[in-house]
Amino acid sequence: MTLTPTYVAEEETGGPDFTICTLVRSQEKYDRLLQSFCAVGFGPGNSEFLAADNRDANRFDGYTWQSALLTRARGRFVVFCHDDIELLEAGRINLLAALKDLDRTAPDWLLAGVAGGRYRPDKHHRRFLRMRISDPWGTDRVMGSVPGRVETLDECFILMRRSRPVLPSYDLSGFHFYGPDLCLQAELQGGSAWAIDFHLRHHGQGTKDDSFAECRDRFIAKYARIFPGRSLHCTTGVVTFPTEAPSDLK
Questions:
Q1: What is the 8-class DSSP label of residue 185?
Q2: Model pTM greater than 0.90?
Q3: N or C: which end of the chain has fewer CB within 10 A?
Q4: From CA 158, how far away is CA 139, in angstroms rounded?
Q5: 215-242 pLDDT, tens per residue?
Q6: Cis status, amide bond into 147, omega within 30 of 0
């Protein structure tokens, strides 16, 4: 038997502009999302849409659905978003322009989103967030300056280049802190995360139930070994890693 390998000499540049990946729990919310994307220029000629199907059971969690969909993505840029977002006036052309500008000013960027915590601010305060977003707390809320570097991103909308993928941790699970996890993974890879000016509406309010606390504890236990003593600014609050990891993790 003769084997015929394929020799790759350069990055693949074909495919649509965007792959829109969504973690779907509600068909009604997802239909609204699809309609809003279509209304501002995302269509079959320039975008593809993939859905992680959690409509009748949690087949995926926050740390598994991205990897599953990324293997099928063909777009130059891959968006990971919640089913409860809705695009407003900003569309495909605006997003491409924002990313082109990011390529120019921050060529090491690996992740982009619409809301996050400023990168290593001097003080700990909620005003040290960066965002432009409409949500249950207000319309067209602006905090900090965008575009701007962040150390975490809200999970409602996170984007990466398919040619420079960032994968979530395999040793974490659940539906919380996977945005901050991605950002720290990007940082460890030598890249950066940015909040960009791409106004959208996030209808979700987030939950802080027992599962939130459990995910937070596991997240802290992991990264305390890597970033001891660091305070990480998230949209849900400040997380501080202890100076020394718990004895059972040493």
A1: H
A2: yes
A3: N
A4: 20
A5: 999 999 999 999 999 999 999 889 999 9
A6: yes
